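hi! just following up on the protien thing from before. the input was this:
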Amino acid sequence: MLPLKQRKFGHMSAAAHPSRRITWLSVLALVGLASSIWLSHLYYSVRGGMGGFRSFCNIGATMNCDAVAASPWAEIFPGVPLSSLAAGGFLAIFAATIAARIPGWRRESLRFLFLLSLVSALFTFGYLGIMMLQLKTLCLFCLVIDGVTLASLAILLGLKPESPRKAPVDGSQWKTLIAVGGGALLVAVVLLKGMDQTEIPAATLEEVAQSVVSSPVVTLGPGAEGSAFGNPKAPITIVKFSDLQCPACRMGAVLLNSIVNRYPDQVRVVYRNFPLDPSCNRKIERSMHPVACEAARVALCAASEGRFKETYERIFEFQADLRPGKALELAREAGADESRITSCVATPGTAELIARDIDEGIALGVQSTPTFFINGHRVEGVYPLPVWNRIIELLLAQSGK
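and the predicted 3d structure came back as:
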C-alpha cells in the first residue's frame, strides 16, 4: 500500500487531468471563435467590395479564402455568413467549458460538449467535401476551424462523457445549457452582422436591378486582346471603362474581383481604357490624373504578355504611390518583362489601341469613370455588391443559364 502522501498526490493528479483537458477545450474554442470572426469579416469585406484584391490567405488556386467567402456555400442564407454560426458554436462551447468547472455540472456539460463537437465534426467533413469537390479550392481559416473541431472531439472522447444509460440526464441543466448555447448563436450572428456595410432595402435593390436590365442594350467592341479575364464563354460580360489613377475605379475593380470569385463560370470582365488625362484623352480639358495615360499604356502592354490582370491589380493596389515610372515598376513586380514593356509602350500601336477605347467611350457617352456595361446594359458608378448580384441573377434567368 502507498504511503498517505503518495496516495494523496496520485488522487490530485487524476483529478487535475480532466481539468487540464477542459482548459485545452477552452483554448481551442477561443481559437475557433477568433478564426470564425475573421472569416465573417472577410465575408462582409469581399461581398461589400471593402477589401483589397486578395486577402493574405488567398495563396493560389488551391488555397483561396476569398473565393470560398464569395461563393454561395459561405452563407447560411443570403447576407449571413456560415462563419457567424461557427462563431456562435465556439462561443457556446467556451461557455460549456466554464460550466464544466462548476461543482455538479461537469457530467452534463461534457455530454453537451460532446454532442456539439460531434455535430460540428460531421459538418466539418461535409464542408471539406464541398470545398474540394464543388469549389475546388480550400480556405486556410476554414481548415483551422476544422482542425479545432476535430481536436476538440478527440479531447472529449478521451474524457469519456458518461452515457445516459449509466447516469440519467439532468433535464434542468440541459435546458440551461441549450438556452446558453442558443443565446451564444444569436449574439454571434447579430453582433457580426454589424460588420456588414452593404445593407440595402429589398425594394430599392430590386428597383435598381430591374432598371438596369430593362435599359437599352448597346453593342461594344472587343477591346484589346489580353485585357479580359474570366470564362471566355461566360453568358455575362461586364465591360468596364476605367482610369487606373481613379479611386472609384479601384473600388470598382475590387467589386469585379468579388463578382468573378462568386460567378467564376458565368462572368467575364473586359477592361477598356478611359484615362482622365488630356495627354491621351481628347474629351478631357484639364488633367485630373496625370499618370493615368502612362499607366494605361503599361497595363495594355502587360496584356500582350498575358500579365494584364496581375498588373492592373498591382497598379490599383499601389494607386496612391503612382508617379511617372511607377507603373512600369509595378508591372515588373507583377511578372511582366520590363524591357518588353518599355519597348511596347513606345510603339505607336499602343497609343492607337488606347485611343480606340477612348473613341468608343466618347461615342457611348462615357462621362465619368468607372462606367460599366453588363451584357450591353449601362451601369454608371460603383453599385454595392448585392445590386450587382441581383443584376447578374436576372440576366442569367433571362439567358436560361
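The two ends are 79 Å apart (CA to CA).
The chain has two domains: 4-193, 202-399.
cheers
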